[in-house]
Amino acid sequence: MKNKHELVCINCPLSCGIELTEEDGEILEISGADCKVGLKYAEEEFRDPRRTVSTTVKVEGGVLPLLPVVSASPIPKSLVTEAVRVLAKVALKAPVADGQVVYRDILGTGVDIVSSRRLEAETTAG
Amino acid sequence: MSGARKPQCVVVGAGPAGLGAALAAREAGLRDVMLVERDFELGGILPQCIHDGFGSMVFGQVLTGPQYAQRYIDRVEKAGVEVKLNTMVLEMAPDRRMTLVNSREGIYDIEPASIVLAMGCRERTRHQVMIPGYRPAGVICAGAAQRDINIDGLMPGRRVVILGSGDIGLIMARRFTLEGAEVEGVYELMDHPGGLTRNVVQCLHDYDIPLHLSHTVAFIHGRKRVEAVTVAAVDGNLKPIKESERLVPCDALVLSVGLIPENELSKQAGVELDPVTSGPVVDERMETSVEGIFACGNVVSVFDLVDWVTRTAETAGRAAAEYVLEGRKRGAVVRVNPGRNVKFVVPQVVGSLDRGADFYFRVEHPERAVRAMVLAGGGEVYSRKAKMVRPPEMVHAGIDAVAGSGKVLDVTVEVVEEEGGASKKKKRGRR
Ligand SMILES: Cc1cc2nc3c(=O)[nH]c(=O)nc-3n(C[C@H](O)[C@H](O)[C@H](O)COP(=O)(O)OP(=O)(O)OC[C@H]3O[C@@H](n4cnc5c(N)ncnc54)[C@H](O)[C@@H]3O)c2cc1C
Ligand code: SF4
């Protein structure tokens, strides 16, 4: 049986409305995307939806108590909430460099979680 | 008082606008550029915007807010810009004299040869949308909640109602959920979401958070702390419908009801403001009505994308440098006419199109299958098809130099129905 899925591309602000037609899991047609990124997105959203995760982790001795972190590439959508829970238990020591790996291979996805800014240590002088 | 320092350019505010402008002014040849920021670090609003979605145009890559800021911070630090943190500009006069304050130097004056305003914007508050009820703790603006959670590690509530579906509200719906709070729903007065569709999808749909369009908060309950809100559907005049009222228990009401450019300083200096954007009236070089004072980013108009903020900043920084090094460029200017389905256009005035220009505008109502056009001196200088235009999204029209436009041309920006749009739509089938 043919099924139609209405999707919205989230890769750029144009937010194209995409229609994906499929039969028994086989993609027949993708229409409505304005560019190639949208085609790839629609296919992935149908077969293996993924999202970039961003959250914060605790930092000791930094100019701020939290460090923003982000997944180096998108992870399966179904694992996002669990990934944030795992990262809530992480605590680092300042200083932290921009792009430093904070957590390797989150939930066995093969994706690393990296720092998304530089965070200096708190100076007691001055 | 001639002991005051005289920097070549002072940039007020170190968000993406200020960072971009300071860098551009330096690269365009100014030796003495001073960047003044009241916060303890550079980056403006970006360090708290930990989600991704920044920079697809400037870097061709999707970055988080802190990552986008970090790239500019690194460049500004290398470029030899003088950075003054924890320093606030208190006053600014029409002759560009400024009063600054910080805890080490106290209050002091400077006399910059040029100024770039990059103060960003502030959130509209409960007061400005006039929600009836008590005044308990727990009513908080979305950007402030974002700062609490992402910078300071504080949770403003555990059971949350969000009023307004602007991008920050949508993003915070997801953030609260990921942090373990329950978001009861997002309520939007208008019949369409205020934020980008992609944020509705990945912030609400992904987490099954309901979006109630044509709804509002009709009353806030709780004397000390928010205990509940009354929500209601609204009629065609946006008035709550009594019979539809429903009580929703919660301990926080998060407001995402709009941003207003921050222009207290601009007013002091006599900068002409546009009543529609609430920001300075600027020309194609981002110069305001006051000689030597330029402006860029959200202080001019609230942009949806940081990439546009950076572009306006580069224009402003370069123009400020040119002003200092080569003298005044601005001659006579004409108003830009907002044509069909155009709510406002930045720049509002144009002096010359000799070097091309970037126009940014918002539409009044959503429309499909259209053409964005710029007409100058009666001729068409820009025309681009657009599948869809929506009020929350800024439309950009970058025009090339218009040859021989030595004299000031009459400029109109408009959105027109695409010729043959209807038949084309049919061919493509429904979307
Ligand atoms: C919550 C939120 C989420 C967003 N999400 C996205 C997104 O996903 N993608 C995207 O592309 N864009 C996004 N944006 C838009 C983008 O981040 C903003 O448009 C951009 O940060 C505006 O830059 P700015 O430099 O004009 O202002 P700001 O970043 O607000 O910087 C202004 C700076 O000026 C300083 N200042 C103000 N007055 C003074 C004074 N008198 N003296 C000294 N300093 C002063 C302030 O402290 C502040 O640091 C978002 C914006 C917000 C608010
Ligand atoms: S399909 Fe292409 S143009 Fe359309 S939203 Fe996706 S990335 Fe943007």
Can you put this structure into words, describing what you see?
The complex is a heterodimer of chains A (126) and B (431). Chain A is α+β, with helices and mostly antiparallel strands and 126 residues long. Chain A has 2 helices and 10 strands, in the order E-E-E-H-E-E-E-E-H-E-E-E. A 5-stranded mixed beta sheet of chain A has the order 8-5-6-10-9, with no helix packed on it. A 3-stranded antiparallel beta sheet of chain A has the order 1-2-3, covered by helices on one side. With 431 residues, chain B is of the alpha/beta class. In chain B, 22% of the residues lie in helices and 30% in strands. Chain B has 9 helices and 28 strands. Chain B has a 5-stranded parallel beta sheet, with helices on one face. In chain B, strands 11-18-12-13-14 form a 5-stranded parallel beta sheet. The longest helix of chain B has 21 residues, at 306-326. Residues 421-431 of chain B have low confidence and may be disordered. Classes of the chains: A alpha+beta (126), B alpha/beta (431). At the A-B interface, strand 5, strand 6 and helix 2 of A face helix 2, helix 4 and helix 6 of B. The complex binds flavin-adenine dinucleotide and iron/sulfur cluster (SF4). Flavin-adenine dinucleotide (FAD) binds at residues 12-18, 36-39, 44-46, 49, 51, 53-54, 88-89, 118-120, 143, 146, 167-168, 262, 265, 297-299, 303, 305-306, 309 of chain B.
